Amino acid sequence: MSDAIRVQPVAGAIGAEVSGVDLSKDLDDATVAALRRAWLEHLVLFFRDQDLSPARFLAFARRFGEPIEYPFVKGLDEFPEIIPVLKLENEKINFGGIWHSDTTYLDVPPMASMLVAREVPPAGGDTEFANMYLAYETLSSGMKRLLDGLVAVNSSAAADVSRTREDRLKDSARADAKKDYAASHPVVRVHPETGRRALYVNVAHTVRFEGMTGEESAPILKYLYAHQTRPEFTCRFRWRPGSLAMWDNRCAQHNAINDYQGHRRLLHRITLAGDKPTGP
Ligand code: SIN
């Protein structure tokens, strides 16, 4: 790996900014391995001032995993694995504007996601990230024991998250998108690379615990949603054109802040294939 690469944490809990690497170039194996180690340690890596065409963005993503298509929104014509994450000046609701891990309503949810910023508002439009290892580790032993044995049902049709997709489905919906997807996953996920336990429910997609009604599940889920996004588990990233973020959906959540009404924001997103979540 080049000696010039530096990894600087941006907060106490999650996130590091990496400098000294040009992602538009072919990266050698040592650099990719070092970036992966840093990514597993910090959960989300940020890069600045990257001049990445869609083709180079895809080439970079392929060094970390297998790009897959998003079930709801069409990708770019030449690059179906890249979706535009767009909010127009006249739109009020933003895509991804709720805490979540990506598409946990799929049986095999994505390992990672990457965003590269193309157009950003003059102020606002930041993205927050939260550390789900810390969310789990800071629970009481009694709560951990309870959650370790539970499975949660995740749905694509929950009302709050469905609303965040509405504008894009008007102009960019995939013809083959099913209306609803649902999948059950362990509430506590064992990370397949680090072996650490992470809390794996999220307010966007989790609807109830298996074997319980929605009403019975709600009080515990409400507690977990508030707990898992406590400020001390998070970091917040300010985008500039050419900024890139790559995060680990297995142990981190993210939330796009909707505070730039009247301005346009465009990022390109790639998600990477994952594995079937397993519990403790
Ligand atoms: C997403 O949830 O992938 C979008 C995040 C963002 O726009 O910051």
Keywords:
280 residues, eight-stranded mixed β-sheet, 6 helices, 24% helix, 26% strand, globular
Verbal overview:
With 280 residues, the protein is α+β, with helices and mostly antiparallel strands. The protein has one domain (6-272): Clavaminate synthase-like (Double-stranded beta-helix), CATH 3.60.130. Helices cover 24% and strands 26% of the residues. The protein is built from six helices and 16 strands. Strands 1, 2, 3, 4, 5, 6, 14 and 16 form an eight-stranded mixed β-sheet that branches. A three-stranded antiparallel β-sheet has the order 13-7-15. Strand 10 (188-190) and strand 11 form a beta hairpin. The structure holds succinic acid (SIN). The site of succinic acid has 10 residues, from strand 6, strand 15 and strand 16.
Broad structural category: alpha+beta
**CATH topology description:** Double-stranded beta-helix
Q: Averaged pLDDT, please?
A: 94
Q: Which compounds are bound in this model?
A: succinic acid
What low-confidence regions span 5 or more consecutive residues with pLDDT below 50? none
**Beta-strand content:** 25-35%
Tally the beta strands: 16
Q: How many helical elements?
A: 6
Largest sheet: 8 strands, mixed
Helix content: 10-25%
CATH class (first level) name: Alpha Beta
The CATH architecture can be given as 4-Layer Sandwich
* CATH homologous superfamily annotation: Clavaminate synthase-like
What distance separates the N and C termini?
35 Å
